[in-house]
Design goal:
The chain is built from 13 helices and ten strands. The chain is of the alpha/beta class.
């Protein structure tokens, strides 16, 4: 009866996971052959269109941004043909990116050669973090260090204007954006489960809200740590609605999947003024930004006891005094990440070349 049905369901889930793993492995193998990325087939069409634009618009410079890295190859070809100065912008690393396909010889060698060629021929190189810039300099010391500039991601102030914060009747921790298995919140969930065991009254007054999509195995973690009644999956939301969720929350959870990448949502977290609970290494570039803005706490993902202590303090204040983490005033430690300010940096680079 019920037992056989459960075993059948578990068997089907196992087979589904196995098929999914096989598809994923095949997909990764195919992507490993597509250098520099799976959009490389766009290159000849974009170059043709680019030549038309160069002829009729007569621009002063060429700007290419990645991902996808194919954009830089297009920029390279158009710059060579036109003699125009060319800025390459890296919102993520190239060959050193956490999600880069695993390539075999000779495709890995070709990918690195293309990366070097692009950097050597760029008039100016903009990177998202110092970590990305340092990696480029170590890999390709022949590229002049004077070419490099740093422009982080940021937020649009207009996105926060005339937004009514979402009203929640529970203490709300929010994670906004897509959740990847490379940045699993398992340790945080472990700490959360432990704290709720110590103060079970909080369980009915708490929600951990996920706005966006989650990797397939995430539900297994929810069940493992018995957080079905706490975890709420709001799914995809239009950006304005996502911002209203963010402004209505009490705390933002932040983690990373790379030791050099800073995900864009950090800057919206900063602008929201909400407390950021970051489970990242203390020497991570995002940690410095959070610390400088006095925007929250930074706890290494392996330090579960410290996470528990911090959550226990916040929850106790809420239950005993009705106090939630205070919303910060937005000062110049945050407004430096306004995209208008960041764009002025890019304008200065364009002027310089």
């Amino acid at each position: 009866g019920a037992r056989e049905k459960k075993l059948h369901q578990e068997d089907n889930r196992g087979r589904t996971k196995e098929k999914s793993s096989i598809k994923s492995a095949i997909g990764e193998l195919i992507h490993g052959f597509l250098v520099p990325d799976r959009l490389v087939g766009w290159l000849p069409y974009a170059v043709t269109k680019g030549k038309e634009i160069l002829e009729y618009e007569m621009p002063d410079a060429i700007f290419s941004t990645s991902p996808a890295e194919t954009a830089h190859l297009i920029g390279y070809i158009l710059s060579k043909k036109s003699g125009l100065p060319w800025i390459t912008d890296f919102r993520d690393p190239w060959t050193q990116y956490a999600f880069s396909p695993k390539r075999i010889f000779p495709f890995n060698t070709i990918d690195c050669w293309l990366e070097k060629k692009v950097l050597e021929n760029s008039s100016s190189i903009v990177s998202l973090t110092e970590g990305c810039q340092n990696n480029f300099q170590k890999l390709y010391p022949s590229v002049s260090h004077d070419k490099y500039s740093l422009i982080t991601n940021g937020y649009d102030e207009e996105d926060f204007q005339n937004i009514e914060p979402k009203e929640f009747d529970k203490f709300t921790i929010i994670f906004s954006g897509n959740l990847y298995r490379q940045a699993t919140p398992e340790r945080f969930m472990m700490a959360l489960c432990s704290v709720l065991d110590k103060i079970p009254l909080m369980r009915n007054q708490l929600q951990f809200l996920f706005v966006g999509s989650q990797y397939p195995e995430f539900q297994g973690l929810v069940e493992q740590y018995k957080l079905d009644d706490v975890i709420v999956k709001a799914g995809y939301k239009e950006h304005k609605e996502a911002v209203s969720y963010l402004l209505g929350a009490d705390m933002c959870y932040y983690n990373v999947f790379s030791d050099i990448a800073i995900t864009a949502k950090l800057f919206e977290y900063l602008r929201s003024g909400k407390k950021i609970f970051a489970t990242i290494p203390e020497d991570h570039p995002a940690a410095e930004i959070i610390s400088n803005a006095n925007a929250g706490v930074i706890i290494d993902e392996n330090n579960v006891p410290l996470m528990e202590a911090e959550l226990l303090r916040d929850f106790s204040d809420f239950l005993e005094k009705g106090e939630k983490p205070k919303t910060r005033l937005i000062d110049d430690k945050v407004t430096v990440f306004d995209r208008k300010v960041l764009t002025s940096k890019l304008a200065n680079i364009l002027d310089s070349i």
